Amino acid sequence: MEKISLILLTAFVFLSSGCSTSAPMKKEEENKADLRNYEKEIDQLLNSANSSQIENPDIIKLRAANIASKAKDYETVGRILTIIKDPSKNDGIRLNYSILKAEKALYDKEPAKAITILKGLSEIEGGEITIAKLKAKAYELIGSHIASARELISINSLLPAPSRKSNQEAILSRLLFKDNDSLIQAANESISFEIRGWILLASLVKRYEDDLLEQKNAFDTWRKNWPKHPASLDPPKRLQLLTEMMDKAPKNIALILPLSGNFAKFGEAIRDGFITAHYESTGNKKIKIYDSSSDDIMNLVNRAIINGAEIIVGPLAREKVKELSRNDLPTRVLALNRTDNKRKNSKLYQFGLAPEDESIQVATKTFNSGYRRALVIAPQTEWGDRNYRAFTKKFEELGGEIADSARFTTQKDYSSLVKSIFQIGYSEERSKTISRLIGEKLEFKARRRKDIDFVFLLASTTQARGINPTLSFFYGEDLPVYSTSNVNQNREDRLRNIDLNGIYFCEMPWKLSETNKLQLKIMESWPEKSATLTAFFALGADAHKVIQRLTQLEEFPDERIAGGSGILEMNENKVITRTLFWANFENAKIKTSYTIE
Length: 597
Known about the structure:
The chain is α/β, with parallel strands linked by helices. It has three domains: 204 residues; 149 residues, Rossmann fold; 128 residues, Response regulator (Rossmann fold). The protein contains 28 helices and 15 strands. An eight-stranded mixed beta sheet has the order 2-1-3-4-5-13-12-11, sandwiched between helices. Strands 7-6-8-9-10-14-15 form a seven-stranded mixed beta sheet, sandwiched between helices. α11 packs antiparallel against α12.
């Protein structure tokens, strides 16, 4: 009892001292009062539960845990649950206890545990909606998006109208995580009218996402075939917006790209990817192209406006994007790079091949896999610094810890670096010390440190070929190694790729398969360039897709577009971020899971 009260008191002191000094005094006092009342109410309930006159103290304790849960204080929830003596005494206690325990498991990033806890509760009346929502969240966290959608579908008819609307948005959002082939397979295996209809709806959204008109026509056909389906009677808002998006889609587009100088080959690949996507889509759009190397960026923007541009795509150079971010823009601009400028510009959207997206994805992937202590190995370069910072910030935000890090330069032998960071020398010295103390020579096997869960390796293909086998040589063969797409720069040299075996990395879809219709068209048109400039062709094609759907991306924070450069979504700063697919090297070949989790 005293321990819980002390924890609550500590929380109160911390939160009170952490209030913003710029907040209104009245609001601050209200927050303090709420926290005092919350603490007092829990203490009173726990005190009364200890009274000999209470017939069922576990019910009182659960009431206290429910108050803590409502306040999102899951540490206190967990502590209270440990003092409940008989959680299976009756169905009511069992249901309440299990829901709270599942909430705590989700808070602890243990979704599989939450699913196990919630199994077998379906026969208890009264908790169907809460249980399904928790299971849906758990399945989402482990990447089982169709299972997550099924849980939400199962309670759709039980919800009041406003909640049903948001639930249906969530159903479609979950399903759109899957590729079209997976959706078709799931639809064929489904015997439920409602589930099958939802999956087929998601399939058509995926199949026609490159073309708004084709998508709208396909949706209209689906509604005729499924007139009594919930999504037909009350369509998700993102589908209701199709007509509006078609009306708002820009008809006059300016491309501002480097078409001369050192970056011309990148600008040309982006241009050709964009133009190819344009000719593969329906609609009557005009495109005018400007060389960003020829003039000041704001002069080019103003020229484009005079020539009728409704939206501008480009520039590519970061310095030019920075200049745009400091100016009032006459129309919307989709820049193809990103800046660190925190100043918001209402008409500037930023999209590019930022490597930090990949490092952030590695942080999320490893943490969700249960790893908590990272060893980071990175080059002593500006690229290494940026990615090290991005990974560290995200991993620590999630609750992970950087156990250690090492930086390398241009060496070809990484033995000293790995031996030092694995603390092999300490192990050897320790053995010598013990031998000297006891006066006998000991049989000795060097050991690496054991406080590391995985290695995050930031390196090029050549560097990774040297570092990865060195990690194994110095007793790190059991450590998972994660990296970014930078390790996948020379896919043809299979003999040397043996040294990359075991490395997990994230990569853009167009570099992992060659099945996309648009991608095949580009490969056919520019066979000599498509292998080395895949990322920039994909960036151009994706830029064309993004400008058609800016309204949708802004309206729905969870909206995602499947692009050649990754799964695309927009954050609150109007930055288009990419999530890539996971792959790993196995027997010197790339094995792809085609999932983003």
